[in-house]
Specification:
single chain; alpha/beta; FAD/NAD(P)-binding domain; 2 domains; seven-stranded mixed beta sheet; about 20% strand; elongated
Amino acid sequence: MSDDAKRDDGPAEKATPDPFEGLSIDFGGGPTDAVSLNGNGGATASPAPISFGAPISFDTPPAAPVRPKTGGPVGGPDDGAERDENRTKMLIIGSGPAGLTAAIYAARANLEPIVLAGIVPGGQLMITSDVENYPGFPDGILGPELMAKFRAQAERFGTRVIDVDVERVDLSTRPFRAWARGIEYRADAVIVATGASALWLGLESETRLRGRGVSACATCDGFFFRDKEIAVVGGGDTALEEATYLTRFATKVHLLHRRESFRASKIMIDRAIAHPKIEIHTNTAVDEVLGGAKVEGLRLRDTATDAVRDVPMEGLFVAIGYRPNTDVFKDELEVDEKGYLVVRDETGSKIEGVFIAGDVHDHRYRQAVTAAADGCKAAIDAERWLESEGISEATTAGAW
C-alpha cells in the first residue's frame, strides 16, 4: 500500500486543523524529481505536506501599507533644504500666456512648478475686451475669461499660482532664488515671462474706457472698428505701423502727435503721408477721452497755442510704446538697448537654467498666441536641461 493510502486510511488526530494539509511543492520537472519536504527524501516518494504550524485566518484585514516619510530637498542638488512649499524644480515668474503655458507643460512633466503671478495677474489680456484671433474660439472670448482658462488648466495639473510681485532675484548660484512679500522661493530652473506693459497717456478717462473704444493693440482690436473714424496717438514707427494697419478697417485714421516732427523712420512717414485714409495732426495732444459707456470723442489741445477743441471720434489707439517688465532682472540678465531681455538659442539666457519667454523679449509680434508658443518652448527646454543635470527624469513625448 502506498504512503498516500496509509495517510488516507488513518490520519492522526490534530488539535488544530492545518488548512494547508495535503499541499506539496514540486521543484522538479516531473514525478521522478519530486522531493519530500518532511526530511524523508526519496526520488520516488510523494512529497509530504508543508505544515505552517498554525491556522491562517482569512477574515483578518491586511495591514495598511507603510508610507515613506517625506523630507529632504525637492528635485535638484542637495542644498541642505528640507522639503517645503517654496522649493521647486521650476519657478515661473509671470502669468500671461507665456507664463501659464509654460506652467501647463512643466506641470505635465512633473516639475512641480510655482508661478509667481504678480499682484495684477494675467498679462495684457486682462485689459482686453474681445479676443477674436486666438485659435479655438470661433465666437471670440473676453481677455480675462481666456486668462482664467489658462490659469485653471495650469492649476489642474498641479501648478501653484501665487499672486505676488517679485521684488528681487538672485540668479548667481543654484538653487536660484526669488523674493516676494518677504518670502524666499528657490528653484532649480527659472522661466522669466514677465511680459511688457503698454505705455498709456495717464488720463482717468482713458483708463475708464479701456476695452470700450480705447486700445493699445491694433492687431488685436482693429477688426472691431470697421467703418469707424478713429485716432492713433504716437510719433514712432509703432504708431505709424498701427495707423497704416487700421486703414484696413476704419473709414479714416487720425494720426495725432504732440510734436512738430515724427521720430519714426522716413519710409514709414512717407507711407502715412501718402495714404488717403490717414490724416496727420502734429502739435496735437489728447487731454481727455469723451464718452460714457464707449468712446464718443476726444478733447484735443494744440501744443503750440494751447487752443482746445472737441472732435467726434469712435476709437482711440495709444501707440506711444511699451515698457518691458525687466527692472528686477537688469543686474542679472542681459538687456538690449530698449530694455528687453536678450535670448540665446530660442529661449535661453546667459545663465544656464534660466529661460525667457514671451513679450519680455519679443518686441516684434506681441501676440498672445506667440507668447504661448514661447512658453511651451521654454518649458520643454527647461525640462530637457533639468534632465541633463540629473534633476528630473526623462519624459516621453506623451508627457507633453
